[in-house]
Amino acid sequence: MAFHNSPALARQAQVILYDRLLPLISSVSSPQGSPGGIDVHEVWNSTTMDFITAYLFGLKSGSNFIQNESYRRHWLSLYQSRKNYTFFPQELPRLTRFFKRLHIHLVPTWVDDANNELEAWCKERCDATSANIANKTTGETTDIGNEPVVMKALLAGIEKEENTKGDESVLRTETLKYPELSIASEMIDQLAAGHETAGITLTYLSWHLSRNPDVQDALRSELLKLSPNMSLSQHDGAVKSIPKSKDLDALPMLHAVIMEALRLQAPIPGTQPRMTPYPSCTLGPYGNIPGGVRVGAPAHSVHRNCNVYPEPERWDHKRWMDSEYGYTEKQRRERDKWFWAFSSGGRMCIGSNFAMLEIKLIIAAIYTNFRTYIVNDDGIEQTDGYTCGPASNKLFLGFERVGGKTG
Ligand code: HEM
């Protein structure tokens, strides 16, 4: 995704951060705001959903979960409710289908209903985007934030494949035959994979920062050096500047706190499966592993290698700050090699760069303007599984406006 200098993404970020997220956080900031704090896990998941759907469909057909509280609660609860029922359809899909034909449901039928509703919601967005493209009401003629960057790229790719390879294409039996459904399938994959993982990272990162006010203050000093920065009070909200990705990437502390949150609470901590190649292979110290065996390594364990990350259970963002830790070149290489939050190889996360950029923007917008503190973190421990957030599925933080007015 060539989004680092994308004017569409910059505009989308501007609307999502300055017109939706910051006003919401300002309205609950202390002392007059919500005394019980706000469930940031829900707010961060909503923000990442608004980001990813804006990039897929354009602002016009994307979600507005930040402002639409009742619908986001409905959507997120549907999404969460199915999560305990993935084993049979994922691991034994044929058996699941077979039993279903006999009217024996290995997963409750309401899970199918929830999936159908989520899929219909995604398909509606795809259809609306296609209509906008056909009517030319996307970025070129109106607000650049309405540009459906990903859908346009997919449509162009399908058209090219059709024109250049046609019947010879390996995509002819599915993607070229059913382009609309194939696009919808890709879109729901991306919006599901994209919102929850980044939302979990923001939850744990804001929790760690709330436990470490000194780190927050140092981070804020770094963020204020951005030129222009994202301070609301400095410009009285008028400027709405979105920093360039290269300027955000030049901030060592911002990078370090995100990396440490991804290390300690990798949003996908569970095993990432791979099949061994035929006839056999060697994995680490284990030789002669036959082909066709499913193997996997969980990021949770890889990130706790104490030879690479000393005292691995300790949250220490300075591990990622080369200038502060005194790493040798070899230690630095090992540290980076063992970082596996986005996996590696052919099935590596396709959204890793997008995720890093959106997380940096969200953290910069919030911590430039607010100090956070914990109101209730009961159940913050990470669940076990594949994509894993807090056991309570909640985190209540309070917000205090710094350098300006409260909401
Ligand atoms: C902090 C945020 C994120 C984390 C930690 C993360 C992590 C991962 C991991 C570990 C995988 C599995 C790869 C494997 O099986 O080896 C994955 C796959 C994937 N991710 Fe992400 N991801 C994040 C954000 C995103 C975003 C924003 C998108 C949006 C486009 C995205 C789209 C995908 C897709 C489509 C796959 C499936 C790739 C495939 O199977 O070919 N992810 N991600």
What does the model show?
The chain is mainly alpha-helical and 407 residues long. It has one domain: Orthogonal Bundle (Cytochrome p450), CATH 1.10.630.10. Helix content is 51%, strand content 8%. The protein has helices at residues 7-28, 40-57, 69-81, 87-91, 93-101, 109-134, 149-164, 179-211, 213-224, 245-249, 252-264, 299-302, 322-325, 329-338, 352-369; strands at 38-39, 271-275, 280-283, 286-290, 294-298, 370-376, 396-401. The strands form three sheets. It has a three-stranded antiparallel β-sheet. A two-stranded antiparallel sheet has the order 2-5. A two-stranded antiparallel ribbon has the order 3-4. Helix 1 packs antiparallel against helix 2 (40-57), helix 1 (7-28) runs parallel beside helix 15 (352-369) and helix 8 (179-211) crosses helix 11 (252-264). The radius of gyration is 22 Å and the shape is globular. The two termini are 37 Å apart. It binds protoporphyrin IX containing FE.
